[in-house]
Amino acid sequence: MTVLAEETVVVTADRARIWPVFSDANLLGRVLPGCEQLASAGPDTYRGVLATKLQFLTIRADVTATLTDLRSPDHLQLELDGRPRGLAGGFRAIIPIVLEEVPGGTRISYRLELTTTGRLASFGAPLLRDSFRRQVASLVANLERELSRPGGVSEPDGPGPGADDSGRPAPGAE
Amino acid sequence: MTVDTAEAVVIGGGVVGCAVLLELSSRGIEAVLVECEPDIGEGASKANSAIIHTGFDAKPGTHEARLLRRSAARWPELLEALGVPALTCGALMVARTGDDAARLGAIQDIAAEHGVGTEVVDSAWIRQNAPYIDPSATAALHVPGETIVDPFWLTRAYAEAAIALGGRVLTDARVARMAVAPDSVEIGLVNGRSIRAGQVFDCAGVRADEVAALAGDTSFALTPRKGQFLVSERTFGVDRIVLPIPGPLGKGMLVTPIVFGGVLLGPTAEDGQDKADRSTTETGRQRILAACRELVPDVDGMEPIRGFAGVRAVSSTGDYIIRPSTAGDRLTIVAGIRSTGVSASPAIAEAAVELASAARGWSARQAARVEPLAGPELGVDAGPVICVCRSVGGAEAAAALAGPTGAVTTDGLKRRCGVGFGDCQGNRCLAAALELVARARGVLPTEVEKHLAGSWLVAAIGEEDPVDNPDARLASVGPPSSGGFGRPSVLVVGGGLAGIGAAVALAERGLAVLVVDRGSRPGGTLAALARSWWSEQEIAAARRLAELMATGRVRWWSEATVVGLGESPAGWIVDVAAASESHAVEARGVVLATGSYLEPREHRSMDGPRPSGIMTADFATDALDRGWRPGRSAIVIGDGRIARSVAARLTQAGIDVVVGPGSGDERNCGGSVRAVRGERRLEAVALGESWVAADTLVLADAVRPASFLLRGLGIGDDGPGVAMPADASGALPLPTLWAAGTCVDPRVDHDRSLAAGTAIGRVVAAAFMGSGLTTTADPRA
């Protein structure tokens, strides 16, 4: 497992509005870059198809995403298991995420621990890192776009449709 | 004689020629590119530093400086549209003395004059941000805009984008004559075809002066400057381009990250006279290592995975030559591009086309925006793994063979999708790659070339010639029937002698065993050897394996490739790719018996160029199995059973083994090859002090462990063929993972592999004893 990135980004949106995104499959599907399908597959689990542009090649991968270690409102871990279509092998990513309130928005700190097998492993870490950074930049832009739309996500007051009483994100519906 | 017409013809399919073709096509000018070799990008465009320079240190006032800066403005959009692998990683020009530091200031001034952002950083910054640089560095010029790129991909993407806009590319189209008239230029090709064009662009690289001379223009001369490079899979942590203060012959030797991983070292700068000389030498290798270890000490002792050389065109004027020919303005000279052709290619093309535009009435035609290329289309299935070192599947290979710029040579396939770029340098997958190219082109294998015209790979085709196998029943093993394999207790990766030994020992002790093997027959490397080369114990083990397979106690998945391993709570998840299906197989334990590959030329110190005909016995036997004759006259290196077997098979196939075991001339069976000769197909081999004429050199005297599966687990080494780090019991430093055979103990004769595999089988069975995984043990165990 390689630590491919350990960085922070700032999203101009309140943390309380970001947290429920993880519990809403529709919304998550809209903010995840290259998400072509996403559906709930059980508690804190989604399955879908993500397309990632690796400069010279667009990789479509069947992905299972699992949310673990959920500690509302500031910590969760995203685990992705994927098998790229048309390429031998697969990948597993573990991404611990911390959300902190900062003036004007939310600072998101994350680390990407990536294991690749087969063809992806031969593309080399620099290209994969570059692609991941582009994805994160898109994710931030998508988040800011979605959260600026009226009704884009539940309001922070009270448990919205995407969160249960404990504040733990509930699985979204397709 | 066929006479074609075009508004413009571009001579030369390198990066500059293809950029000019795109520039013309994007302006709606009907253009044809003619390239003398079978594929585009066969000259300096495939053998350079793979950098897009900002031009920060270019000599002010030159065409080069101006066009580098103009290109820098165009690159971001162009790279995105063309979908070219590129990374802006930045560069550090390292100073190690006070004088050096002073020169950095002067270079920074030049950069500022060009408008290139740079900063001088001190030794503390270097230690913090680039700890791989030699500690003697006192300062460095940081150039954040320097970019690494895949230059061949760029060349092809230019051509592909041009074709999408109506451009045409003719390969195998050498220009034999050219006549410039006031109203047109007539070009005669060696194939008898002629093209009449309104305008011709001479982009023939280091031979642009010779092309111009065909039209009577002898106003300039180009001399070749050879640059040798080394490629390392290990990166030494290098994440930026590291370069010295430039010298009189150029930028000096660099340590450059490669966009797909690894680092590139070099180039040398060797002025010569022979434009075809792309040979590499031990002297060059040592010079590169000496220069680069002054920048990055860890490269000392580095083992390159490959070496190559390119030839830059140095012009008699000291600058780019972009002007009308003295033979007439219908011929535009685009020459002397030296070492910055990749970097300046967009603006060179723009300048060349604009130069001709006024005279041709093209000025009103504005360049259209280059539409994004779609990129390779892959389906859902990866297909069978063609290249095991890089896990390149059939789907990727098929995409690389398709389309107007699809691969037509085996090197072309390698550059398009990576088949053959890995540790074994293609020797284990060349036969399959050759078959794919032949099938895609609808030609016989004898018509497929390695790279240049005349670099044939197969001399003739005869009867298929598979060897006699120790047990006939093993030869019939095929892909699995549907239904899968359940959940084996132990999965054995590799069906060579070690895999057979392990599988038999495990099954006899009651464990459910699945063997996954790339071959169609058990035996691994020895599957290519006739029965007479197997020991009695090996034959007995193969027969016992057949019995266990017949009763279902060993399950065997042939023609399948393990492409990765992942730890799981229950043990391991093993990624297996096969022709028709791919699976993640769960197993409690895994035995890696991945074997070895015969040491290819690229891992050896062997002076000379890189013609076809230099192979390991892996390719030679793959070819013979298919009924192909891999040459006419061969030298076989090695004196073990693999060398003796392949020499016998070559002789039996009618190939003249001039030196080798059993040939009557065994003078170098155990020795090394000093040098080779032949630009396209091998012509001669230096054995000791004498040269021996042969068109085929078969290397069978040493093996390297096939250990690349461990890299993804973080316990392998990025170097080529480093043995798996198993302890005395065969255990690797991860739970329930073992290794045995030549992947641990690389012996060319594989003489201990069966015993090692058997021993590991017993160790593994003992480890699982009492776990509930074992059933009734075989009384013979």
| Number of H- or I-type helical stretches of chain B | 16
Percent of residues in β-strands of chain A: 35-45%
Our measurement of the CA-to-CA distance between the termini of chain A, rounded to an integer number of angstroms, reads 32 Å
Percent helix of chain A: 10-25%
Overall 3D form of chain B: globular
Instruction: State the major sheet of chain B.
Output: 8 strands, mixed
Report on this model:
The complex is a heterodimer of chains A (174) and B (781). Chain A is α+β, with helices and mostly antiparallel strands. Chain A has helices spanning 15-18, 25-31, 119-122, 125-148; strands at 2-11, 35-40, 45-53, 58-71, 75-84, 91-102, 105-116. In chain A, strand 5 and strand 6 (91-102) form a beta hairpin. Chain B has 781 residues and is α/β, with parallel strands linked by helices. In chain B, the strands form 11 sheets. In chain B, strands 1, 2, 9, 10, 11, 12, 19 and 20 form an 8-stranded mixed beta sheet that branches. In chain B, strands 13, 15, 16, 17 and 18 form a 5-stranded antiparallel beta sheet that branches. The longest helix of chain B has 20 residues, at 63-82. The radius of gyration of chain B is 28 Å and the shape is globular. Chains A and B meet through helix 3 and helix 4 of A and strand 22 and strand 27 of B.
Fold blueprint:
The complex is a heterodimer of chains A (about 170) and B (about 775).
Chain A (H helix, E strand, L loop, with lengths): L1 E10 L3 H4 L6 H7 L3 E6 L4 E9 L4 E14 L3 E10 L6 E12 L2 E12 L2 H4 L2 H24 L26
Antiparallel strand pairs in A: 1-7, 2-3, 3-4, 4-5, 5-6, 6-7
Chain B lengths: L2 E9 L3 H12 L4 E4 L16 E2 L10 H20 L3 E3 L2 E5 L2 H17 L4 E4 H7 L9 E5 L3 E3 L1 H14 L3 E3 L4 E6 L4 E5 L4 E9 L5 H7 L7 E11 L8 E4 L9 E4 L5 E4 L3 E2 L10 H14 L10 E10 L5 E5 L2 E8 L5 H20 L24 E3 L4 E2 H8 L8 H8 L12 H12 L18 E2 L28 E4 L3 H12 L4 E4 L19 H15 L3 E4 L2 E9 L2 E8 L3 E6 L1 E4 L3 E3 L15 E3 H9 L2 E2 L3 E5 L3 H12 L3 E4 L13 E5 L6 E4 L2 E4 L2 E4 L3 E3 L31 E3 L13 H16 L13
Helix pairs in contact in B: 1-5, 1-8, 2-8, 12-13, 12-16, 14-15
